[in-house]
Amino acid sequence: MIKSMYSAVTGLRNHQTMLDVIGNNIANVNTTGFKSSSVLFTDLYYQTLSAESAATATSGGSEINQIGYGSTLSSIEINTSRSGYKQTGSTLDMYISGEGYFVVQDATSDILYTRVGSFEFNSDGSLVDSNGNFVLGVMEGALTDDLTKLTITDFSDYTGLSISERGTITGTNSVTNTIDVLGSVMLAVFANPSGLSQEGNMNYKESSSSGVPLITNAGSSITGTLISGGLEMSNVDLTKEFTDMIIAQRGFQANSRVITTSDQVLEELVNIKR
User: Fold this and answer.
1) At 268, which helix (H) or strand (E)?
2) 43 lies in the same domain as 134
3) Residues 42-70: pLDDT tens digits?
4) Which of 54, 85, 107, 118 has its Cβ near the most Cβ atoms within 10 Å?
5) Whether residue 95 is found in the same domain as residue 227
6) Domain co-membership, 63 together with 145
7) Reported confidence tier of residue 273, pLDDT bands at 50, 70, 90
8) How many domains in the chain?
9) Are residues 10 and 62 in the same domain?
10) How far apart are CA 168 and CA 137, in angstroms?
């Protein structure tokens, strides 16, 4: 196989990957809290045809001559930029105005992170998200700041449960007729949120690339405050996606043309031998 055909095959694979990512972005244009991704390519290894030579008294020298072997996938990066606010009217729906992530625990006790604050209290008095995962935080009066499930004791005694902009959960006790502080929703901040591992259902896991999260209260300049009554929209930019789709399509077509031309050259070589 001649080098041009091999290089073009790598180009086809990469532009197909680019189209796959774009297709996923467009499919999630209205998915709550979705973060779009983008593809980066890099060149492959090179073959040295001739080495460089230094200049002498009688020669000006020459540069190194190399030919490349195509491209490969460098990375698929998550665009973690914050998107707009979509009003829902539910007091327990929370929008994060900064870079924080809610911390949740799934049915297998795995710790996950999400930007989607679609919360409710279940029949046991535990704060859960729309996937049934437990929202983690710190209960009022706890002896440590360790994260735990936010489960309200005597849940049936409370009405008007709400979450403040700093994550404080309050409710009116119908027995004592007092407004009690019950706990706090905590947020996680990552040094490199683009390095988080995507787990589906708008959940993420920490990775060696994202780093260990800093767990803190809402309300700082980094985490941002919590805004009640709405959720974060998808950050997919359709104008950019359609532009990238055209670029990917043309790149795929161009590499296909290189393969066709290389095949014609090989055919000519076969005919010469005949």
Assistant:
1) helix 238-273
2) no
3) 998 888 887 877 777 777 677 888 888 88
4) 118
5) yes
6) no
7) low
8) 2
9) yes
10) 10
CB atoms within 10 A of CB 69: 14
Is residue 102 domain-shared with residue 186, that is, in the same domain? yes
Residue 196, both tokens: 């988080």
Which sign, positive or negative, has the C-alpha torsion 185, 114, 191, 99? negative
Distance CA(69)–CA(65), nearest Å, equals 14
Q: Give the C-alpha distances (Å, rounded to integers) separating 260 from 4, 24, 250, 255, 257.
A: 10, 29, 15, 9, 5
Assess whether 100 and 200 both reside in one domain: yes
Q: Give strand pairing partners of 180.
A: 171
CB atoms within 10 A of CB 244: 18
Helix (H, G, I), strand (E, B) or coil at 22: helix
For residue 274, give both structure tokens: 């005949």
Domain holding 119, by residue range, is 89-231
pLDDT band, very low/low/confident/very high, at 1 (cuts 50, 70, 90) = low
Per-residue model confidence (pLDDT) at position 67: 86
Q: Is the pLDDT of residue 274 over 80?
A: no
Output the pTM of the full model: 0.86
- Contact status, residue 237 vs residue 212, Cβ threshold 8 Å: no
Q: Is residue 191 located within the same domain as residue 119?
A: yes
170 bridge partner residues? 162, 181
Query: Residue 18: pLDDT above 90?
Result: yes
- Least reliable range by pLDDT among 148-152, 203-207, 260-264: 260-264
Q: Evaluate the CA torsion angle 252, 254, 258, 264 in order and state its sign.
A: positive
Q: Of the candidates 193, 214, 220, which has an alpha carbon nearest to the alpha carbon of residue 204?
A: 193
